[in-house]
From TrEMBL:
Native organism: Senegalimassilia anaerobia
Cofactor (UniProt): [4Fe-4S] cluster
GO molecular function terms attached to this record: 4 iron, 4 sulfur cluster binding; metal ion binding; quinolinate synthetase A activity
Enzyme Commission numbers on file: 2.5.1.72
Protein name as catalogued: Quinolinate synthase
UniProt cross-references to InterPro entries, sorted A to Z: NadA, NadA_sf
Length: 332
């Protein structure tokens, strides 16, 4: 394994606006959303990290890769993406002729902004043609235009392995990039100093405390976690991967190192088995995903225009190409 870290000074963004209308009855909202969805020829896609009542209303729940693939094949003309900004942009890039709505346009991913073009240009100048810029899908549309191919946490190792270049600049997430490097010793992976603010709050000390309290528990960790947490894990994988691993495992207890929103799907998939799930003492919550609420979902279907996702013509072709390459490589 070979890895290198580059410096960058790219900014971060806040959590967006506060949730509103939470007191509105869930049953009434759910019924209205179902009616509006039919009127708008809409399909609702939700990430595992959004609140459980939003997941329950969705037609499909998944991780970034699953939602990206679904967005390409669904017949509905309106896609409601219950997630953060980069997810809405990805859906629009892959479906330029469809309407894509974000129930909370201010919900952003801080990590998506933790890269700058001068950093990329500097590394390209140093390594030339034997460099691939690999962009985690958790990134802005603009950052995708600076890149050669996108990846998700579930396919990053596979896609990087298949790239002809030996040198890989992995942006923006350092922790996922470091995990990829550990799995591909023949590649030289150059890391960018970006990170998920939610996963880096998970400390190895908290995991060890949980292991002492639950000695038979399987430790499952998302590759966005710090390296010392991954070293403690029995299983490392995407949100979907962790859910499937827990469902298939003979173990009865699991220590889960990712955002707590995953608990709904974990419990649904293991219902009746008696399996139990433990999260770190500092429970990882995505403040931006939490902004996506049922009232906002209903609001975007009532009046779509303010919630519509647009990607500028100057960015769309190059950004779309990186996503299309991801789907092509992932299918190999």
């Amino acid at each position: 394994m070979s890895e290198q870290v580059i410096e960058n000074n790219a900014g971060q963004t806040g959590a967006g606006t506060q949730a509103s209308g939470a007191a509105e009855p869930i049953a009434a909202l759910t019924q209205e959303i179902a009616q509006l969805k039919e009127q708008r020829d809409a399909v609702i896609l939700a990430h595992y990290y959004v609140p459980p009542e939003v997941q329950a209303t969705a037609d499909y729940v998944g991780d970034s890769f699953a939602l990206a693939k679904l967005a390409v094949d669904l017949p509905q003309q309106t896609i409601v993406l219950c997630g953060v900004e980069f997810m809405g942009e990805s859906a629009k890039l892959l479906n330029p002729n469809k309407t894509v709505l974000l129930p909370e346009p201010a919900a952003d991913c801080p990590m998506a902004h933790m890269i700058s073009k001068p950093d990329i240009d500097r590394v390209r100048a140093e390594y030339g043609d034997d460099l691939a810029v690999v962009c985690y899908v958790n990134s802005t549309a603009e950052a995708k235009t600076w890149s050669d191919v996108c990846v998700t946490s579930s396919n990053a190792v596979k896609i990087c392995s298949n790239l002809p270049q030996r040198n890989i600049l992995f942006i923006p997430d350092m922790n996922l990039g470091r995990y990829v490097a550990s799995q591909l010793p023949d590649k030289h992976v150059i890391l960018n100093k970006g990170y998920c603010p939610r996963h880096v709050t998970i400390s190895v000390e908290q995991i060890i405390d949980l292991e002492e309290a639950h000695p038979d528990a399987v430790v499952m960790a998302h590759p966005e976690c710090p390296a010392d947490v991954l070293a403690e894990a029995d299983y490392i994988g995407s949100t979907k991967g962790m859910i499937e691993h827990a469902a298939a495992s003979d173990a009865q207890e699991f220590i889960v190192c990712t955002v707590v929103g995953i608990i709904r799907e974990l419990e649904l998939r293991t219902q009746g088995t008696g399996k139990r799930f433990h999260f770190p003492a500092t429970t990882p919550r995505c403040e931006n995903m939490d902004l996506v609420t049922l009232p906002k979902l209903a609001a975007c279907l009532r009046n779509p225009a303010p919630y519509e996702v647009h990607v500028g013509d100057s960015l769309a072709p190059a950004a779309r190409l990186t996503l299309e390459r991801m789907l092509e490589y992932a299918a190999k």
